[in-house]
Amino acid sequence: MEVEKITPYGGGPEADKTGQVREMFDAIAPAYDFMNRCMTLGMDHSWRRRAVRLLGPATSYGRVLDIATGTGDIALKLAAENRTPSITGIDLSEGMLAVGRRKIAETRLPEGVEITLRQGDCLDLDLPDASFDGVICAYGVRNFADIPRGLRSMRRVLRPGGRVVILELSTPSSPLVKPFYNIYTRAVIPTLGRMVSKDVRAYSYLPESIAAVPQRTEMTRLMEQAGFKNARYISLCLGACMIYTAEN
What is the C-alpha end-to-end distance of the chain, expressed in Å? Predict the structure, then answer.
């Protein structure tokens, strides 16, 4: 099944994925950061750091858009690692943004760095064309109701020559690793998610959406169809995570 048709709470092909994703993240926002640390065994920190560094030196003096910013982890890493002066984070969920704003308020940002978080639909960005030097999206693409449209939206707001970086979970291709991965994602993570977040479906939706999201060359093909150039992917953690990069 196409990932765009997989929704957190069901409802068939006509279900409103965008609305359900918003509802899901509002529900799990208080437990989201803790669950990320647990289910990735703390590796999500290094994955985000790698993604941020791949944006390149231009982001040290320019503007970066963080799509599906969630609780602001990528935005805070951009501030700490790249000292990007202007960071805008967009997310569907006000619950997640509330957590992110609190984290930013409690963080001493480098001098001259400003982070702004705002609610918005990543598929229909209310932002000017070519207004950012870099665009980054972590763990958000598989939640898009229309991936090609989301990629075109990213490209529209990216200046010519700017870079896009997408960090996304994936399924390992190794036949030796895959069985253990399947047990972990389809049994351990949903059980832990139900215990911690109290949302019965959210962490069952997670492995379903990971299995269905376009991966590796399929994702780079979609990026190039959206108009990006030189799309590539980097495999992390035996293929359990991918970083995709491209230029406008």
Answer: 30
Q: Spell out a b/e string for 70-85, using b for 16 or more CB atoms within 10 Å of the CB, else e.
A: bbbbbbbbbbebbebb
Q: Which residues contact 205 (CB under 8 A, 6 or more apart)?
A: 6, 7, 8, 24
Which pairs count as long-range contacts for 177-182, CB under 8 Å and 24+ apart, including other chains? 177/238, 177/239, 181/240
- 220 and 232 Cβ atoms separated by less than 8 Å: yes
Cα dist from 210 to 8, 19, 140, 169, 185, whole Å: 12, 19, 11, 6, 9
Q: Give the separation between CA 94 and CA 22, rounded to whole angstroms.
A: 8
Taken in order 208, 205, 177, 233, the sign of the CA dihedral is positive
CA distance 109 to 199: 33
**Amino acid symbol at 196:** V
CA separation for the pair 180, 198 (Å, rounded): 25
SS3 199: coil
pTM: 0.95
Per residue of the chain (248 residues), give pLDDT as tens.
Answer: 699 999 999 887 678 999 999 999 999 999 999 999 988 988 999 999 999 999 987 677 799 999 999 999 999 999 999 889 999 999 999 999 999 999 999 999 999 999 999 999 999 999 999 999 999 999 999 999 999 999 999 999 999 999 999 999 999 988 888 888 888 888 888 888 778 887 878 888 998 999 999 999 999 999 999 999 999 999 999 999 999 999 99
Secondary structure (DSSP) of 105-142:
HTS-PPTT-EEEEEE--TTS--S-TT-EEEEEEES-GG
Q: Residue 93 in contact with residue 62, Cβ under 8 Å?
A: no
